[in-house]
Design a protein that fits this description.
Length: 284
């Protein structure tokens, strides 16, 4: 993922607990499976873990995923940290940091913050990343960046965003989409998830004076400043909207993905293939 904006209301007694809109940006040559319920065929390597009950896409190169949820109420999402002069080709794949939490490996802590503390112990082995993990039933959400000068921490209530820098770094597309999501999430009537997807499919490029300096050429910096990226070899491969709503003693989970892949692993641009799922989680 390269842009995630989300609204987190852990004290909600009714209505939205968590609302998210996210774009996954990736090289067009990298094959992946779109959003689906995982089965035993989806590789899981952690001791005692199981892919059953995981709803996510799957990276067919690295074997992990970029964003997913589970029937038990777990959630995780990841973005890469942009540091072109600090990339090791032999580093382990970052997507397994998401899938290990979702598949509930028995050798790992079972709380979001505990899991991130475990990840942080070996964080320097990986290329730069941001990782968000949550447990809706526990009403816990935490964040860690292995290129930040801070340890894993619970996320405070409010509207946040992550792109390819640390949490809430004010890059133009993050600031714009975080504000748009906050307005939609505050609506008195529940906004259809497709509105959040359409919000993220925005090709507007930031003015040069607002661009961050991340060590890449100016032309590339311009192209990547759009929420919805389109270049000949790289772009936004999919958009996901997710909402968790408190309804009495249960949580309703809704997910909608629009991607460039119908499941055949052939890229069609711009992507228009949609998948949606809805299920419930018992509240704590």
């Amino acid at each position: 993922m390269c842009l995630i904006v989300f609204d987190w209301r852990p004290r909600a007694r009714a209505g939205a607990l968590f609302t998210l809109a996210a774009n996954r940006d990736e090289f067009l040559r990298r094959t992946a499976e779109p959003l689906h319920w995982w089965s035993a065929a989806d590789s899981v390597t952690s001791p005692g873990s199981s892919a059953a009950g995981v709803l996510a896409g799957r990276d067919l190169v690295g074997g992990g995923t970029w964003l997913g949820v589970t029937r038990s109420g777990r959630f995780a999402a990841l973005t890469n940290y942009r540091a072109p002069n600090d990339m090791r080709p032999d580093a382990p794949t970052r997507g397994t940091l998401v899938s290990r939490w979702l598949t509930d490996a028995q050798d790992l802590p079972d709380t979001p913050l505990g899991y991130l503390d475990e990840v942080a112990r070996s964080g320097d082995l990986y290329n730069g990343f941001n990782l968000i993990v949550g447990d809706w039933a526990r009403r816990e959400l935490a964040w860690y960046c292995n290129r930040a000068d801070r340890p894993p921490a619970p996320l405070p209530e409010g509207t946040h965003g992550i792109s390819n820098a640390v949490l809430d770094t004010p890059w133009p597309k993050l600031v714009r989409k975080r504000a748009e999501l906050a307005r939609l999430a505050a609506s008195e009537t529940q906004v259809p998830l497709v509105r959040f997807v359409e919000m993220m499919r925005d090709p507007q490029i930031a003015p040069d004076r607002e661009l961050p300096a991340t060590g890449i050429p100016l032309e590339r910096e311009r192209a990547l400043s759009a929420a919805f990226i389109e270049t000949p070899d790289y772009g936004t491969r999919g958009t996901t909207a997710l909402r968790v709503t408190v309804r009495g003693m249960q949580l309703d989970v809704e997910a909608l993905e629009r991607s460039d892949d119908d499941g055949s692993h052939r890229v069609v641009r711009p992507g228009g293939f949609e998948r949606s799922e809805r299920y419930t989680v018992a509240a704590a």
